[in-house]
Design a protein that fits this description.
Blueprint (H helix, E strand, L loop, with lengths): L1 E4 L3 E6 L9 E6 L1 H11 L4 E8 L2 H12 L7 E4 L5 E6 L5 E6 L20 E5 L8 H14 L3 E5 L10 H11 L5 E5 H7 L3 H7 L3 E5 L5 E5 L3 E4 L12 H13 L9 H19 L16
Parallel strand pairs: 1-4, 1-8, 2-6, 4-5, 8-9, 9-10, 10-11
Antiparallel strand pairs: 2-3, 6-7, 11-12, 12-13
Helix pairs in contact: 1-7, 7-8
């Protein structure tokens, strides 16, 4: 089983009309939530670990997990409202967000006593690692999972508007790296964090995957670098594309050590992730593909 730990929220996405006051459509979202749904859709055994509101949006979010076949036994529930992310989509399909997160359910996540038997990987990232008090609980789960020998993936998916002290966040990020098996991040995240893949590899991860938008994906290990091109599609928006890459990587690795993969094995895995992300980009909002749309990893 793969556990995805982090927030769920509602993306308010423009319906396609022009102008800043376009009607907004509510869609399930949040990086970790999207990753969990993508895992379920492509056929992985997955569970979501978070705190979700009991409001109408929260019920819809839990329903989406169940519809994708994602286990919800690790989902904590509470009466606090659901977080909202208002998206604005650029001409190239890229998305920017404004967040409404004060007093919301996902911020009050608490460390679970234990994870189920048979967990082979836990994924972390996005707002959940930036917003206290829940951020400390997710960080504790990351450290505990790593110490227990469980594979960990970190996608910081940086949202600068939610980070009041960038220097403190960057220091905290560096402190996570010894507990990370695979670091995945966008070029924009890498630039904001200010480090380098070589430096991050020295701190602990076995591999670093960089997403480069229309220029594809790359993986860097201590031994080599491999890149693949993006799959050319008509982009509606890029919402959820990076989260789909997370799911494809977790599913495709299937418990293998990233450092043990050959160049060709990494090329096949990155190509699978690129195909999955491309399908997501052809749809409005975070709508990851199903296994039958992708073929083999």
């Amino acid at each position: 089983m793969i556990v995805v730990a982090g927030e769920s929220l509602i993306d308010l996405v423009p319906d396609g009309a022009d102008g800043p006051l376009s009607p907004l459509l509510p869609r399930p979202g949040g990086g970790p939530y999207n990753t969990a749904v993508a895992l379920g859709r492509i056929g992985a055994e997955a569970a979501f670990c978070s705190r979700v509101s009991t409001d109408a949006f929260g019920e819809a979010l839990v329903g989406g997990l169940r519809a994708a076949g994602v286990a919800t036994g690790l989902v904590q529930r509470g009466p606090e409202p659901t977080s909202l992310a208002v998206a604005s989509v650029g001409p190239d399909g890229s998305a920017r967000y404004g967040f409404y997160v004060e007093g919301t359910a996902d911020r009050l996540f608490t460390l679970p006593e234990r994870l189920p038997e048979g967990v082979r990987a836990v994924a972390f990232g996005t707002c959940s690692l930036a917003l206290e008090p829940g951020a400390s609980a997710y960080e504790a789960l990351l450290r505990r999972s790593s110490r227990d020998g469980v594979f960990t993936l970190l996608d910081p998916n940086v949202r600068p508007g939610l980070i009041p002290d960038p220097a403190a966040y960057r220091e905290r990020f560096a402190g996570w790296l010894p507990y990370v098996s695979l670091l995945k991040l966008s070029e924009e995240d890498a630039a904001w964090l200010g480090g380098s893949p070589a430096g991050w590899l020295e701190r602990g991860p076995a591999a670093v995957v960089l997403t480069r938008g229309a220029r594809g994906l790359s993986v860097l290990t201590r031994a080599y670098e491999v890149s693949v091109p993006a799959v050319r599609v008509r982009v509606v928006d890029t919402i959820g594309a990076g989260d789909t890459v997370n799911a494809a990587l977790l599913h495709g690795l299937a418990g293998r050590d990233p450092a043990a993969l050959s160049r060709e094995e990494w090329r096949e895995l990155l190509s699978f992730a690129a195909r999955a992300a491309a399908v997501t980009c052809t749809r409005a909002g975070a709508e990851p593909p199903y296994g039958h749309e992708l073929g083999d990893a």
